[in-house]
């Protein structure tokens, strides 16, 4: 019990000074990354369930990656022009909508276009989120915020790996 109390105390002391806005940003990043598992299994879905060739699945994955590269640049420009909050709202809403649409399209060209669009919108929130996470005024707060902000990504990536190994 003392170890659990000590761990709770250390966590509370480490992250308690972060503002409420930071935790909203952190939560939205976690939710956004949870939806990222769709792309992990997209190649399997396209080849096994939909019967497309492996080369087509590779093309779709490449288009997603290309869209992601363009989305990061577009997200940075959009953050500067319309603001960080608006960019996050647009990008994360777009990610949710585009992910849902990807599940309903059936034509090969439509799948490729929607996958590229998903890459754009899913990565467009990153520049704004990074900039907002660094808004903490103190140097100690910025360091803490940067460390805590990165936690949803490795945690979820590890869970995806374990889930894949188990075959579920």
Report on this structure:
Helix content is 84%, strand content 0%. With 168 residues, it is mainly α. The chain has one domain: Growth Hormone, Chain: A. α2 runs antiparallel to α7, α4 packs antiparallel against α5 and α5 packs parallel to α7. The relative contact order is 0.15.
- Basic shape: globular
Name of the CATH homologous superfamily: MFS general substrate transporter like domains
* Rg over C-alpha atoms, rounded to the nearest angstrom: 18 Å
Count every helix, treating DSSP H or I runs of 4 or more residues as helices. 9
The CATH architecture would be Up-down Bundle
| Sheet of most strands | none
What CATH calls the topology is Growth Hormone, Chain: A
**How many strands?**
0
Strand content: under 5%
Percent of residues in helical segments? over 70%
H and E string: HHHHHHHHH
Oligomeric assembly: single chain
- How many domains is the backbone divided into? 1
Mean pLDDT rating: 79
Which secondary-structure class do the elements indicate?
Answer: mainly alpha
What's the end-to-end separation, in Å? 34 Å
Low-confidence stretches: none
CATH class: Mainly Alpha
